[in-house]
């Protein structure tokens, strides 16, 4: 999904595992709960609902967001992943409203 020439969102791909974890370690608000190795402790139990996202500015990761998508009452709902104490995007630095 492309929002403009500068920002692109992609679904997580396992080839980005090291880049994701490295980004979270350097990020302004990254925690252990955002690390893929922490989220993987359930093994394949929830793999069908995983829908982690990465935001790119050019070729650089700008933000990541661990996410689970589940179906409830015929609706698809995005949640913080199973086991994560909280969710939302992880950002490289503080951003401005602009």
Query: What about the largest sheet?
Result: 4 strands, antiparallel
Main sheet: which strands, in order across? 1-2-3-6
Q: What is the residue-mean pLDDT, rounded to a whole number?
A: 82
Radius of gyration: 14 Å
What is the CA-CA span between the terminal residues?
21 Å
* Unreliable segments of 5+ consecutive residues: none
Quickly count the helices. 2
H/E series: EHHEEEEE
Question: What structural category do the secondary elements indicate?
Answer: alpha+beta
Helix content: 10-25%
Q: How many beta-strand segments?
A: 6
Quick one: overall form?
Answer: globular
Sequence-ordered SSE layout with sheet pairings:
Elements: E1 7-11, H1 17-26, H2 36-39, E2 53-57, E3 60-65, E4 68-72, E5 75-79, E6 90-91
Antiparallel strand pairs: 1-2, 2-3, 3-6, 4-5
Notes on the protein architecture:
The protein has helices spanning about 15-25, 35-40, and strands at about 5-10, 55, 60-65, 70, 75-80, 90. By secondary structure, it is of the alpha+beta class. The chain is globular. The mean pLDDT is about 80.
Quick overview:
The chain has 98 residues and is α+β, with helices and mostly antiparallel strands. The protein is 14% helix and 29% strand. The longest helix is centred in the N-terminal third of the chain and has 10 residues, at 17-26.
Keywords:
98 residues; alpha+beta; 4-stranded antiparallel sheet; two-stranded antiparallel sheet; 2 helices; 6 strands; 14% helix
């Amino acid at each position: 999904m492309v929002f403009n020439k500068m920002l692109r969102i992609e679904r997580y791909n396992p080839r980005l595992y090291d880049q994701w974890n490295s980004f979270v370690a350097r990020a302004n608000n990254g925690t252990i709960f955002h690390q893929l190795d922490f989220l993987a402790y359930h093994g394949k139990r929830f793999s069908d609902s995983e829908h982690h996202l990465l935001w790119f500015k050019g070729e650089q990761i700008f933000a990541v967001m661990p996410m689970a998508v589940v179906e409830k009452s015929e609706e698809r709902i995005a949640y913080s992943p199973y086991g994560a104490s909280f969710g939302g995007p992880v950002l490289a630095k503080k951003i401005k409203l602009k």
